[in-house]
Amino acid sequence: MKESASCVSFRQRLKDKKRIVVKIGSSSLQHPETGDLDYTKLDVLVRELCDMRNKGKDVALVTSGAIAVGRKAVHLKDSCQPGERTIAEKQACAAIGQARLMMIYQKIFAEYNQVAAQILMTKNTIVDNLNRYNAHNTFSELFKLGVVPIVNENDTVATYEIEFGDNDSLSAIVAALVEADLLILLSDIDGLYTDDPRKNKDAEFIQVVEELSSELMEMGKPSTGSNVGTGGMNTKLVAAKIATSSNIDMVIANSKDIKALHRILDGQDIGTLFVGNQNTYFDLPEFVEKMHS
Ligand code: GLU
């Protein structure tokens, strides 16, 4: 696709972002052969985040991996079909894995002399006014102290009624809550295509989405039979909706190269950029309350 002048200027303004939320998914943190954590990737991720801090930016990380790490720790096989595990088993794995995951993050952040903190959330954190107010103040205080909040869903207690369900949406909700100006989703895909590139060789890569039309949102839904919905694009488009409606720019980039993080902040053309919309009114608690209902 051709690059327009506005596309270049949208990229250039990423250089001035001050508060950045980065999301990384479980599959990006594991070795595909064994399911064990990829320490090299984790190290590069933390180094990139610490370097953002050294540039004076506020940084928060939304990380998955609790359930996967817990499952490994107690030698549960990864080969179950979806729905085969009980909720209690998943929650037990999350309880084991979240602590382990944080231990590893703390260790690597400490190597770079950076203090990190843990925040676990459920839908109630956003929907309940007092909870939301307190969570907002906690994040603000952590940023003031120069600390990197590390966020995950509180999987050990979250059941259907109070769960976000996926960390793509959660990261956009966090970005909106903390009034971030950029959200970066590190994923196992390069970004958004006009069609599934694995099935359609004519699929074109989309560098910038200036307006998230309802047509584009529909394309992401698996139920429509569209190929764009494969590879978890639906949750990423929901995240884009939350972020851009809250006037936050969002980039989806491939986690194969985590060093892309600083290049995105240098204004380089990496992944798909969804441009924040300053002219929308967005009610975060109302949106979160209606999720899944
Ligand atoms: N919160 C889950 C975990 O940490 C993952 C959810 C997701 O990846 O979207 O294991």
Would you kindly provide a written description of the structure presented here, covering whatever features stand out?
The chain is 43% helix and 15% strand. The protein has twelve helices and ten strands. Strands 3-4-2-1-5-9-10-8 form an eight-stranded mixed beta sheet, sandwiched between helices. Helix 4 packs across helix 5, helix 8 packs parallel to helix 10 and helix 9 packs antiparallel against helix 10. The chain is globular, with a radius of gyration of 18 Å. About 3% of the residues have low confidence. Glutamic acid (GLU) binds next to helix 4 and strand 4.
Topology (SSEs and partners):
Layout: H1 5-12, E1 19-24, H2 26-29, H3 39-54, E2 58-63, H4 66-73, H5 87-111, E3 116-121, H6 123-127, H7 129-144, E4 148-153, H8 167-177, E5 182-187, E6 192-193, E7 205-206, E8 208-209, H9 214-220, H10 233-245, E9 249-254, H11 260-265, E10 272-274, H12 284-290
Helix pairs in contact: 4-5, 8-10, 9-10
The structure holds glutamic acid.
Glutamic acid (GLU) binds at residues 25-26, 64-68, 152-153, 155, 166-167.
